[in-house]
Design goal:
alpha+beta; Chitinase A, domain 3; two-stranded antiparallel ribbon; elongated
């Protein structure tokens, strides 16, 4: 019942393929330092940046690229030669004898906003070609700058040092991720979280939502004479989330619904239909179809979310370690860091 379910805007429910289930799954929060975040993250870049605003964009962009390249399916066939190159770990283009490699193309795609989430990696040929051409243009401009000796000018040195810092940080992070984000580490995170998840009672129910008491009483009378609950829900319920499905709400826990609804649903025996009752959304009639104790989601359901979390954890831990051992003197005042 999408109109009465609570909390899904704050914490992402555990569901495969990034879907939001109608049933009330348990919520899992990972602790990062003094902060907690849910398993379900839309993007490892932007969620991480939201949690620690002082973390450099270039670092988290690399984390994102590393994740996406790992998940990119190397077996996916492409007919276009450029796409075939992108589909391997090799060279995409040879430019005047110098290679442009696949990771450079995807890094440019992230920085330019072409790739935002993992689903965007399934790009059309035209989009990938445009990114590749942009990388070629950038390389040509850089080569021309070298030909003119611009890389030797004093004013160019800060930018060149920054570019080198970025490249070396990417190499370091790649090594950290390869060595520490392992299947065993993902399983340990899963096992630790499952131990913290206590089973809760869940109800599977159908409901009919109408605007007035009179309408609810009329439908209740029909149900008492044997009318089909699902059929009446399809015809009369004003809940757009469950009405077309015969009022089916799937399984939910008490905190998932507004109190008035949960109180009636959990007090009604299996197979029974409640009397009409009111909530802030209107008048309800509930039919309880089953009750059970919740079970934690399986490892495979959460693997992608845990992979993102673990990758962020490894990167953040290394940055924290380096900051603790560094002498940082802010000349223009210390930035605000959560």
């Amino acid at each position: 019942m999408s109109t009465t379910r609570r909390g899904e805007e704050a914490f992402g429910p555990l569901a495969p393929n990034g879907q939001t289930p109608h049933h009330g799954g348990s919520y899992i929060r990972f602790t990062i330092g003094r902060k907690k975040l849910p398993v379900q993250l839309r993007s490892p870049v932007f969620q991480a940046l939201a949690l620690c605003g002082g973390l450099a964009m270039l670092v988290m962009v690399y984390v994102y690229v590393a994740l996406e390249l790992r998940w990119f399916d190397p077996a996916k066939p492409f007919d276009d030669p450029v796409l075939q190159s992108l589909n391997s770990d090799g060279v995409v283009v040879w430019l005047n004898g110098s290679p442009i490699v696949r990771s450079q193309v995807f890094a440019h795609a992230v920085s330019s906003g072409v790739v935002i989430d993992e689903a965007d990696l399934d790009l059309r040929a035209k989009e990938i070609k445009e990114v590749t051409e942009a990388v070629i243009d950038q390389r040509l401009l850089a080569n021309e700058a070298r030909r003119q000796g611009l890389h030797l000018e004093p004013t160019s040195q800060p930018s060149l040092i920054l570019a080198e810092d970025r490249a070396l940080s990417e190499v370091l992070l790649r090594r950290l991720i390869e060595n520490q984000v392992t299947d065993d580490s993902l399983r340990r995170v899963y096992d630790d979280q499952v131990k913290l998840m206590e089973p809760t009672e869940q109800v599977r129910a159908r409901h009919i939502l109408v605007e007035t008491r009179a309408a609810a009483d009329l439908l209740s009378a029909q149900l008492e004479t044997g009318a089909d609950f699902a059929a009446l829900a399809k015809e009369h319920s004003i809940d757009p989330g469950s009405g077309p499905n015969g009022g089916d709400l799937d399984y939910f826990s008490q905190p998932d619904m507004v109190p008035e609804f949960s109180e009636v649903a959990f007090a009604t025996p299996v197979g029974q239909i409640s009397q009409p009752f009111k909530s802030q959304f209107g008048w309800h009639i509930v039919k309880v179809e089953d009750k059970r104790m919740s079970k934690p989601p399986g490892f495979d359901e959460l693997r992608t979310q845990i992979l993102r979390y673990r990758t962020y954890e490894v990167v953040q831990s290394e940055i924290d370690r380096l900051r603790e051992g560094a002498s940082i003197d802010y000349v223009l005042g210390e930035p605000i860091r959560d």
